[in-house]
Write a structure and sequence with these properties.
heterodimer; A: 236 residues; 13 helices; globular; B: 319 residues; Rossmann fold; Alpha-Beta Plaits; 2 domains; 11 helices; 14 strands
Chain lengths: 236, 319
């Protein structure tokens, strides 16, 4: 598992993709930071974080689109599966690699914290920690969805579109749920990542939300192992 | 070393392999021969644990692939038809990755890596990206990958496909050398390759095993006729008549003449009758000396064709 993780992280940085995504993330979040935080003399970063959650909808599909598709196309899936590792270790290694790049991207936002201090701002630390944790947790869910989507096809673009579609749906699930109402709304609420995000981001330490995000991630990774296993059973 | 019992794989309605049973003993090189689409890759994918079978068992060194996949996978090095390579890595990094993936002890790997690269002759390209290597070198890196961790069993799916003749000879030599301390299953649809490298051959067609034997025995037992070449000094027409008169001769073909009055004949005769003596006497009486008499076994190619077409006839009868 560690071997797969290391290889995939290296692969991200051998290719321009990680740099482009991190650069893009940094650019957008800087714009938010300059106009939303600095220009309005606001010493909190939580607003910034909740604003840029939206661009993860674009970044995560691209981040994860090649993580499993590539192995099927190159035939390296055979190597992984016929090595003495379990399928769940393969999936976990791949997920952690994508998530590592995500964390590097996320770490770029620490610069803003430094700038706030330099400018003499005093952010509320507990609230900020809550915001960071919420951001990482929702990021883990997004990455897991991307990993799942890339297990469905051997075409990178298709994988990106699938995960983008799922993420977009999750973005608009709250209005849909409130429009429909009743029992379907409760079902839809199970997939509502964003409604739980706001509470955590505002500094409320809500253990059920944390468990929700972790299990959401776990479920998608589990589904990914099922997809891979299923294909081994049915395909040539 | 490897026991395969009644292995069957269905893809929905399609039967990829049906009731495949054979075994490979330690240190043997087994050829797995069949036309394209016969089920060779499917069988190999099942043995290596890449895909599960519909029914039947595979045991390697006493471990069942379904019950103990880890133990089996540790003992097998697999080179699929498409070598599994990460094109964005250098050869050395890739092999290091394989070693970690296969949980090879770090100290052991340090000495093993150089040996493997030396063996498949890729030491001089170890710092190059796999992307930039030619097909022949990629195949070697694929083979090196299978050797990582010194597995007892090597499974090689069409290892010489797409290589040029010189590379093919080198890879074959290498496989022969590896056969000294590995158990090898080698698949191919190229017949001379199998007869050159393998000690025993399994012929598979349409998912079923049609023959298992040494290449020599196959050619001996399968022929329902004997076949030889005779070179005789004498007029072609006369000689042909004489040979055809002999009881048991089924087929006669005249081949190119060396000299003016010398002709070669390919004779096929019933297996039960030895036609050589009567032919000799007849020709001696007529005064046409036999210059050469050589018996021809069936070539593997002919056996192969015979087996795979016979199968078709059988099916027709069943239908």
């Amino acid at each position: 598992m560690f071997a797969i993780w290391k290889r995939e992280v290296q692969a991200y940085f051998y290719q321009p993709i990680a740099y482009i995504l991190i650069g893009f993330f940094f650019l957008i979040s800087s714009i938010y930071f300059i106009f939303g935080t600095v220009a309005s003399y606001y010493a909190q970063l939580n607003n910034l974080l909740s604003s840029i959650v939206f661009i993860l909808t674009f970044i995560c599909p691209i981040l994860t689109m090649r993580i499993l598709t590539e192995d099927r196309k190159n035939g390296t899936e055979v190597l992984l599966v016929t090595s003495p590792v379990d399928v769940y270790q393969i999936v976990l290694g791949k997920f952690l690699a994508s998530f590592t790049v995500f964390m590097v991207m996320f770490a770029s936002s620490f610069i803003y914290l430094a700038i706030i201090y330099i400018l003499g701002g005093k952010p509320e630390i507990p609230r900020l920690i809550g915001g960071y944790i919420a951001f990482l947790l929702i990021g883990a869910c997004y990455v897991a969805i991307g990993v799942f989507a890339s297990s469905l096809t051997e075409n990178q673009i298709v994988a990106a579109i699938i995960s983008f579609a799922i993420l977009l749906l999750i973005n608009i699930i709250d209005p849909i749920a409130s429009f429909i109402g009743g029992f379907p709304a409760k079902v839809l609420d199970m997939f509502s990542l964003l409604s739980r995000y706001e509470a955590l981001n505002s500094g409320i330490f809500d253990i059920t939300s944390i468990i929700y995000y972790l299990s959401f991630t776990a479920v998608f990774l589990f589904l990914t192992t099922r997809v891979i296993d299923k294909r081994r059973w049915s395909q040539g | 070393m490897i026991e395969i019992q009644n292995l069957t794989k269905h893809y929905g309605e399609i039967k990829a392999i049906e009731d495949v049973t054979f075994s490979v003993s330690k240190g043997e090189i087994l050829g797995f021969l069949g036309p394209n689409g016969a089920g060779k890759t499917t069988t190999m994918n099942i043995i290596t644990g890449y895909m599960p079978s519909t029914s039947g068992t595979v045991t390697v060194d006493g471990y069942d692939i379904m019950e103990n996949p880890r133990e089996v996978k540790k003992r097998i090095g697999y080179l699929p038809e498409l070598p599994p390579l990460y094109l964005d890595m250098t050869v050395k990094d890739f092999l290091d990755f394989c070693a970690r993936l296969k949980e090879v002890d770090k100290k052991v790997w340090k000495s093993q890596r150089d040996d493997i690269m030396e063996l498949v002759k890729i030491t001089h390209v170890q710092h190059r990206l796999i992307r930039n290597l030619s097909k022949g070198y990629r195949q070697r890196v694929g083979l090196a990958q299978a050797l990582v961790g010194a597995p007892e069993v090597l499974i090689l799916d069409e290892p010489t496909v797409g290589l040029d003749p010189k590379q093919i000879i080198e890879i074959r030599k290498l496989i022969k050398a590896l056969g000294k301390n590995h158990t090898i299953i080698l698949s191919s649809h190229i017949l001379p390759e199998v007869s050159a490298v393998c000690e025993r051959v399994v012929i598979i067609n349409k998912g079923r095993i049609v023959a298992v034997d040494t290449p020599e025995n196959l050619s001996k037992n399968l022929a329902d006729f004997t076949k030889f070449r005779i070179t005789i000094a004498g007029p072609e027409k006369k000689v042909r008549e004489l040979i055809q008169q002999v009881y048991g001769v089924k087929y006669l073909e005249v081949q190119g003449a060396g000299k003016e009055d010398e002709f070669s004949y390919i004779v096929e005769a019933d297996k039960e009758v030895d036609v050589r003596k009567p032919i000799f006497h007849k020709l001696a009486q007529a005064g046409y000396p036999i210059l050469e008499l050589r018996s021809l076994g069936l070539s593997l190619e002919e056996i192969f064709l015979q087996l795979t077409t016979e199968e078709k006839n059988e099916e027709r009868e069943v239908n």
